[in-house]
Design a protein that fits this description.
This protein is α/β, with parallel strands linked by helices and 134 residues long. The chain is built from six helices and five strands, in the order αβαβαβαβαβα. Helix 3 packs parallel to helix 4. The longest helix has 19 residues. The two termini are 22 Å apart. It comes from candidate division WOR-1 bacterium RIFOXYC12_FULL_54_18. InterPro entries: Bact_response_regulator, CheY-like_superfamily, Sig_transdc_resp-reg_receiver. GO terms for molecular function: DNA binding.
Amino acid sequence: MAEEKLKIKALVVDDEPDVLSLLEVLLTSYGYSVITASDGQQALEKARVEHPDIILLDVMLPKLDGYKVARMLKFDENFKHIPIIMLTAKVTDRDKEMGIETGADIYLTKPFEAENLLSAIERALQKYKKNHDH
C-alpha cells in the first residue's frame, strides 16, 4: 500500500506557514509526495507545472482565493480531473456551497482531525480512479 502512495503527488496550498508545514509532515509521513504553495497564483502555477494527483486548497489566500483557483482548474480540460479538497476556516453553509459550486470535491473545515483528512484524500482519489479507469 505504501509503495502505491509514493506515486501520489499532493499540492498543498495555504498562506499560513504552520498549517503548510503540518500538512506537509502529515502527508509525507503517509508516503505522499508533497508540493506546497502559499498563495492562489502560486497554486495555479504549480498545479500547471507539477500536475498533482490531488490538491488541498485553503479558501482565504493572497492574490487569488481558493474559489477562483478551483474554478480556473476545473474549467481547464487538462486539470479538471484533479480532485480538490478545500480545507478552510470558512464554516457557513454558504461557504461550503461556494466551495462545491466552484469545484471542490470535498469541503473540510479547520481545525481538522488528521484521520478525517487522510480518509477524505483516500475517498477523493478513489472517486477519481473509479471515474477514470476505462
